[in-house]
TrEMBL record:
Gene3D superfamilies: Hotdog Thioesterase. Keywords: Hydrolase. This is Acyl-CoA thioesterase. CDD domains: 4HBT. Its EC number is 3.1.2.-. InterPro entries: HotDog_dom_sf, THEM6_lcsJ_thioesterase. One of its GO terms (molecular function) is hydrolase activity. PANTHER family: PROTEIN THEM6, PTHR12475.
Length: 179
């Protein structure tokens, strides 16, 4: 129920009012409520992925994807996500979740999410996201072309070390599962 309320709050903030450049940082704010905590009296590890879904939804809405998703059958699918916990987040903390595109290739979009409390980093996540249309994976560039009607061209940022490491880890996991 709390997740539904957070989605309603997201929609009430009307993030589609002004289209945001896809390479700019997107921010989502949360308050850690008592029901978000575990027996250790800090934000439970199960809440992080839920908040990451909300942050990615905000990012996609701000970018102008809503018509593509609602009218034209596009979807975003989380292919992989790696979370790193640095320090616990206490109850009632005001959390800023910053989401930023790190890189994209012909198949996946890579985003970094940073959980900040009072400007201090508490956790990070790197997400690998596939864009689908008609059941087929489409490039993030193709989606940007549709959103901007080919009026703007975007270059993927250079491949950062953490994305290269994530790609290598996922390739190793795939090889291990096949062998």
């Amino acid at each position: 129920m709390s997740q539904l309320l957070r989605y309603l709050r997201l929609l009430a903030s009307r993030p589609w009012r002004q289209r945001r450049d896809p390479l700019l940082v997107s921010e989502q704010h949360f308050r850690v409520m008592p029901w978000d905590c575990d027996f250790n009296f800090h934000l439970t590890n199960g809440r992080y992925p839920v908040w990451l879904d909300l942050a990615r939804t905000r990012y996609l809405i701000e970018m102008g994807c809503t018509p593509l998703f609602v009218k034209h059958g596009w979807r975003s699918v989380l292919a992989s996500q790696t979370l790193t916990f640095i320090r616990e987040i206490p109850p009632l903390a005001d959390v800023t979740l910053r989401s930023e595109v790190l890189h994209w290739d012909r198949k996946y979009l890579y985003m970094e999410h940073r959980f900040l409390v009072n400007g201090r980093l508490h956790a990070t996540a790197i997400a690998r996201i596939a864009m689908l249309k008609g059941g087929r994976v489409r490039s993030f560039s193709a989606m940007l072309d549709v959103i901007y009607a080919n009026s703007r061209q975007f270059e993927s940022p250079d491949l950062p070390a953490q994305v290269a490491a994530k790609m290598a880890l996922l390739d190793a996991k795939k090889q291990a599962s096949e062998g």
